[in-house]
């Protein structure tokens, strides 16, 4: 048989899950979270599937192999919208009063809730110990 030489490299993948790399050998072979990633890259997963979805539905996620972790971003700088109406930004997440809302995308963490002590004279059961976070 006579085969034609193909000068192109094709994306590997199966079931609409593909892989591509900027440097050859940057992706780990046989697993997605090795102990040490090639080129000293940081491994991160972005997951778009709720944890309640059955496995048969398939996970919608992607793996990133980055030079620096995504949490090493620069501090937030406020952006003033230049939309066509000249008014405030039209994208709102707080529908009570958008003028009181300031979204800060910096890396944040929750401080733990205060745990009441029996010496305070409070008996807290499961229901009384629940707290809401962000209205949920």
UniProtKB/TrEMBL annotation:
Residue span(s) of domain Homogentisate 1,2-dioxygenase N-terminal: 9-136
A Gene Ontology term for the protein's cellular component: cytoplasm
Pfam families: HgmA_N (PF20510)
An MF annotation (GO) of this entry: metal ion binding
Keyword Coiled coil included in the entry's annotation: no
Top-level taxon in the UniProt lineage: Eukaryota
Broadest EC class assigned to this enzyme: oxidoreductase
UniProt keyword list: Dioxygenase, Iron, Metal-binding, Oxidoreductase
EC id: 1.13.11.5
Pathway in which the depicted protein is active: Amino-acid degradation; L-phenylalanine degradation; acetoacetate and fumarate from L-phenylalanine: step 4/6
Record-level GO BP terms: L-phenylalanine catabolic process; tyrosine metabolic process
SUPFAM superfamilies, A to Z: RmlC-like cupins
Name of the protein described by the UniProt record: homogentisate 1,2-dioxygenase
Organism expressing this protein natively: Furculomyces boomerangus
Lineage of producing organism: Eukaryota, Fungi, Fungi incertae sedis, Zoopagomycota, Kickxellomycotina
